[in-house]
Specification:
188 residues, mainly alpha, two-stranded antiparallel sheet, 2 strands, 4% strand, flat
C-alpha cells in the first residue's frame, strides 16, 4: 500500500457524506425537503389538540380529511422530487396548487407555515435544472481556440454545442428510383 492511496484510509462517514452530496446535487433536494416539511403542518394541525393548563383547544375543522389528503400529497410530491426528478416541473406545479388550496381547507394553510414552505418548495422544483458536467482538459483546449481568434474584443466567439460528438457524415447516394413518377407517390 502506498502513501498516495488515500481512498482506503478515509473514514466511512466522509465517504457517506461525499456520496450524499453527489446524490443531493443531482436532484432538486431542497425543493423536495421544503415541500415535505410544508406538508407536515398542513396535515397535523387539523388533528392537533393544544393544552393550556386545564383548557384543551381543538383545532379540528370540518375539512380535516381534506387537510390530511393535502398534507400527504405534498409529502408524496416531495419524495417524487427526490427520487423521480424527471417530473420535477409537474411536481412543482402540483405542490404550488395544493399549497394554494390549503389556505381555505387546512386552517389557513397550516397557519401559513405549511403554505409558505410548500409554495417555496414548488417554486424551487420548477426552477431547478440539472447542472452541466465539467469540461475535461482536452475539451478546454479545443474551446479555448475559439477565444484566441476573438482578438481584443473585436469579434464575439461563436457558441459551440457541448456534449455532442461531431461525426463526419457521408453524403447520401441519390436514389433515382424515387423519381420514376416525377417525385409523386401513388396509392396502388
Amino acid at each position: 500500500m502506498s502513501p498516495e492511496s488515500t481512498g482506503q484510509n478515509e473514514h466511512y462517514l466522509r465517504v457517506f457524506w461525499r456520496g450524499f452530496r453527489t446524490w443531493r446535487g443531482n436532484r432538486p433536494f431542497w425543493a423536495g425537503l421544503f415541500t415535505m416539511v410544508g406538508g407536515l403542518p398542513i396535515a397535523y394541525f387539523p388533528y392537533a389538540n393544544m393544552h393550556l393548563g386545564n383548557v384543551t383547544l381543538a383545532m379540528s375543522t370540518t375539512a380535516g380529511a381534506g387537510s390530511l389528503i393535502i398534507g400527504i400529497l405534498l409529502i408524496t410530491l416531495g419524495l417524487t422530487m427526490w427520487f423521480h426528478h424527471i417530473v420535477r416541473v409537474f411536481a412543482g406545479v402540483a405542490a404550488i396548487l395544493l399549497a394554494l388550496i390549503s389556505i381555505p381547507v387546512a386552517n389557513i394553510g397550516g397557519f401559513v407555515i405549511g403554505f409558505v414552505l410548500a409554495l417555496l418548495g414548488g417554486a424551487l422544483s420548477i426552477a431547478w435544472a440539472p447542472g452541466h458536467p465539467k469540461v475535461a482538459a482536452a475539451d478546454a483546449g479545443v474551446q479555448g481556440e475559439a477565444f484566441k481568434d476573438a482578438g481584443a474584443g473585436m469579434q464575439e466567439p461563436q457558441p459551440e454545442f457541448q456534449g455532442v460528438a461531431s461525426v463526419p457524415q457521408q453524403p447520401e447516394q441519390y436514389d433515382t428510383t424515387a423519381e420514376v413518377d416525377g417525385g409523386r407517390h401513388r396509392a396502388e
